[in-house]
Design a protein that fits this description.
β11 and β12 form a beta hairpin. The strands form 3 sheets. Strands 1, 2, 3, 4, 5, 6, 7, 8, 9, 10, 11 and 12 form a 12-stranded mixed sheet that branches. The protein has a 3-stranded mixed sheet with strand order 14-17-16. Strands 13-15 form a two-stranded antiparallel ribbon. 32% of the residues lie in helices and 38% in strands. It contains 6 helices and 17 strands. By secondary structure, it is α+β, with helices and mostly antiparallel strands.
Length: 335
């Protein structure tokens, strides 16, 4: 039975309940039936409207709950976990944004400041070593991006695959697989090269400045605040001016390593190049692997030379620009 049939049946019952109308007044009967049907339909319509309204209210309430939950989830997901961009290798007198002196990592946008006579050694996730001298302030903006607000840093990047970018109030410095020092203050900016090359893009200058190192000397680029003049000089890669980095450089790790790896490490930390007297010696140094202790960069020349000569047939001698590797018998023949 559909809705119309049910309505007619109910109206008929109501008419029967109210009693029979006079037979000769058919018009009155039809009019009464029509009015009753209209009133009944209006009542049914109102009831259904109330039911629809109730369902809409329940639906709206459910929608509000769902939106609140979604909003809460979105709020949680829009607040990502802090990203650690560097590991702290060693530190003395360092202040971090969070004030945690026992921190082991530096996070994105965290303000790092070394105190007077304080130092900090960081290793970025790509292996680049960053040394902060005293009274230096910086933040790590990304995996390979640093904002240097003031002070002096030393960058030792592992190779051409690493391109660290340093933003300063003077401009941007981009390394190209290198070792270099960058010193920034209110009066000047100075970049000194020890290995590889860098590109400097200064604010207000259309052409970038390229600086590099070769044959035992590295470029030193200075920008003066008073005149905004750029000047260039050179510095030996073994100059005592690099000695401030010695106590901060990560030690050579203890373990099994080739002679070639240890010799290359001491050469790099002292600004020298490796020179083998014979090609066969280089091959032997790469293939001979022994256990090594941890070796500090300070005094590394004497330490490595002694360890090499007491555990192998190699001998080392240090000149101004090279670490010369020869055979013990060959050296004896020379003398």
């Amino acid at each position: 039975m559909n809705d119309n049939d049910r309505n007619n049946d109910l109206i008929g019952r109501l008419l029967n309940y109210s009693g029979a109308l006079p037979k000769d007044n058919e018009e009155t009967k039809q009019a009464a039936k029509a009015r009753l049907e209209r009133v009944w339909l209006e009542s049914v319509a109102q009831q259904r409207a109330l039911q629809r309204q109730s369902r809409l209210v329940r639906f709206a309430a459910a929608a509000i709950v769902v939106m609140a939950v979604v909003g809460l989830v979105r709020n949680v997901t829009l607040q990502p976990e802090p990203v650690a961009l560097a590991t702290i290798v060693q530190q003395t007198g360092v202040n971090f944004t969070g004030g945690d002196d026992s921190a082991t990592s530096v996070f994105a946008d965290e303000l790092v400041r070394t105190a007077h006579q304080g130092t900090l050694t960081l290793m970025l996730n790509n292996g680049t070593v960053i040394l902060l001298d005293d009274s230096t302030t910086l933040t790590l903006q990304g995996p390979e991006q640093i904002s240097l607000l003031g002070g002096r840093v030393y960058v030792d990047s592992p190779g051409m695959d690493s391109n660290v970018i340093i933003d300063t109030s003077w401009g941007t410095v981009r390394d190209i697989g290198t070792q270099f020092e960058l010193d920034v203050n209110a009066h000047r900016m100075q970049a000194a090269l020890r290995e590889g090359s860098i590109q400097m893009s200064l604010f207000g200058s259309a052409e970038p400045i390229v600086a590099g190192a070769a044959d035992g000397r590295g470029d030193v680029v200075r920008v003066d605040a008073a005149t905004m003049q750029v000047s260039k000089d050179t510095r030996p890669t073994t100059s005592p001016k690099w000695d401030w980095t010695r106590s901060m450089v990560p030690a050579f790790p203890a373990g099994r390593h080739s002679f070639a790896a240890v010799i290359a490490w001491v050469a790099r930390q002292t600004g020298r190049e490796v020179s083998y007297s014979r090609h066969i010696l280089e091959t032997e140094a790469q293939n001979e692997i022994v256990d090594w202790p941890s070796i500090a960069a300070t005094g590394a020349e004497a330490t490595v030379a002694q360890l090499v000569e007491t555990t192998s047939h190699f001998t080392l001698s240090f000149s101004e620009t090279t670490v010369e590797v020869s055979d013990r018998e060959e050296r004896l023949r020379r003398h």
